[in-house]
Amino acid sequence: MTEIHDVAGAPIIIGGGLAGLMTALALAPSPVVLIAKSPLGHEASSVLAQGGVAAAIGADDSVDLHLADTLKAGDGLCDAEAARSILAEGPDIIEALLRFGVPFDHDAKGRIALGLEAAHSRHRIVHAGGDATGAAIIKTLVARVKETPSITLIERVAARRLLVDDGRIRGVLANTHCGPVVFPTDRVVIATGGIGALYDYGTNPAGSFGQGLALAARAGAMMADLEFVQFHPTALAGTSFPLKLISEAVRGEGAILIDETGRRFMEGVPGAELAPRDIVARAVFAELQAGHHAFLDARKQPGTAFPGRFPAITALLHAEKIDPLSQPIPIRPAAHYHMGGIKVDALGRTSIEGLWACGEAASTGLHGANRLASNSLLEAAICGRRAGHDILGTSASTAPTRRIAEQLAAALPAPGPSDPALVRPIVSRGIGVLRNAEGLQRALGDLYPLAMGMTPAADAAVTGLMIAASALRREESRGAHMRLDFPHHASVVRRSFLHLDEALVLAQHFAPQAVA
Fold first, then answer.
1. Closest CA to 360 of 208, 141, 135
2. Rg (CA), the chain
3. CA dihedral 138, 143, 144, 149 (to 10 degrees)
4. Does residue 277 carry a catalytic annotation?
5. Concatenated DSSP letters for 188-216?
6. Given the residues 124, 160, 170, 277, the one annotated as active site
7. DSSP helix, strand, coil percent of the chain (3-state; round to 5)
8. 3-state secondary structure of 241
9. Are 130 and 312 in contact (CB under 8 A)?
10. Strands 151-155 and 32-36
11. Across-strand partners of 435?
């Protein structure tokens, strides 16, 4: 029996990371319900962010310079107008976060300290707690959310289906420890991003396997640029999940990449260790594929300054019995950030009436084919705030929504818990750092029966299948998408758009029964 939980027509935010928290706070004092599958401050990619927030606030910086760096990293696929609009709000969002109480780092003169990261032409990375920016921001905003009376927080609840009638949102079907629950509403925000847990090696929490994308896709929403998965080149090599991240800022402070012989394998590459992430990740991956080991060497630079500059990384290395002052750090590429997602406009609106998306789950056009470092926290904060402000201009339709939600829920089998374990080896093998048609077709065929089933792997398989379909359709190499069989740019630059139905039709051709 599915319980109906009346929220009096309030909008529902799914996800408790930076984007979801900013959306909720932007809606205050208007009532809103925020549901999270874990306690706030846990199991969110934002918490793990060691980098900072990129913003053009330095005396030698400008939005134009920030935009130029973003467009270059995006490898021709950014929506320039959308990117400029978001980046222009950078200075204001830093001020807003300061007003919330985020303890950004300051220099000896009392000015906000600005760091440098790969592919940035200026020092523009705002940090908090050195290498613990995400955790500091989330801790501050969680406290603000909990003290805001208009925000109803419901934790340990996993959204599993969006209820849609006549092209409009009518509610959310969720799993709780008491069984399935329906939340009737005609306004929903998906702010649960991250797909790293689709891979054997990822830096996102274990629950970040694209649930938000599966929710929207099953409801009929348009997806965009799903093939672009950024692999961070310097995850700490190990067997834990998620892998611990060694921030790009370490290379920004002078650390270099070497193999087991001490050979600096990025020497001679334009930008060297601070080249765009896709180039560095492929170089590290090539070393591993060739039978070498890869290391990040910080012994000379930043050297003795390492513990003070990177206290959180120092602590995690010491826990692994690694001393960065005397030992090179073993690394490997790991799935880190998804440039693609649910297609949205400038206000976060999706192709479904009453559904918004923000943060990593959304595709705004900012990141293009390869995200510029530290633009993600910036986008999450700005676009979460935008979505909240946009929802303030809407009104609820409570009575019809409840009745329709009950009818829709009664017609649906209650989905069980999700588990991406069966999907990880398929995705890792076929949709990894390097791709080709054969591997993508095999991935589609293997994922199709899982996506069509009612097993715990179904939602993860839906997301993986859509990524594979988009990657197969893009017959070129661009940014983070590297096709061994199409190693060059195509002559026409285009973004990719996809509905789940299209991906399923494509995958069906490669499924085992189709071959038989």
1. 208
2. 22
3. 130
4. yes
5. EEE-----GGGSSSBSS-TT-SSHHHHHH
6. 277
7. 35, 20, 45
8. coil
9. yes
10. parallel
11. 483
Helical packing angle, 458-473 and 500-508, nearest 10°: 80
Assessment of whether the complete model's pTM goes beyond 0.85: yes
Sketch the domain layout of the chain as residue ranges: 234-334, 414-515
Task: Band the pLDDT of 516: cuts 50, 70, 90.
Answer: very low
Query: Distance between CA atoms of 181 and 159, rounded to whole angstroms?
Result: 9
The top-level CATH class assigned to 414-515 is mainly alpha
Rounded Cα distance between 278 and 367, Å, is 13
The domain defined by 234-334 folds into Flavocytochrome C3; Chain A, domain 1 (3.90.700)
Each residue's pLDDT tens digit, 75-131: 999 999 999 999 999 999 999 999 999 999 999 999 999 998 878 999 999 999 877
| Cβ-based neighbours of 504, under 8 Å, separated by 6 or more | 448, 451, 452, 465
Of 202, 223, 204, 246, give the one whose Cα is nearest residue 427.
202
Share of the chain above pLDDT 90, in %: 80
Q: Is 218 exposed, middle or buried (0-12, 13-18, 19+ CB in 10 A)?
A: middle
Helix or strand or coil: residue 102? coil
For residue 311, the 8-state DSSP code is: H
Asked whether 185 and 162 are in contact (CB, 8 A), the reply is no
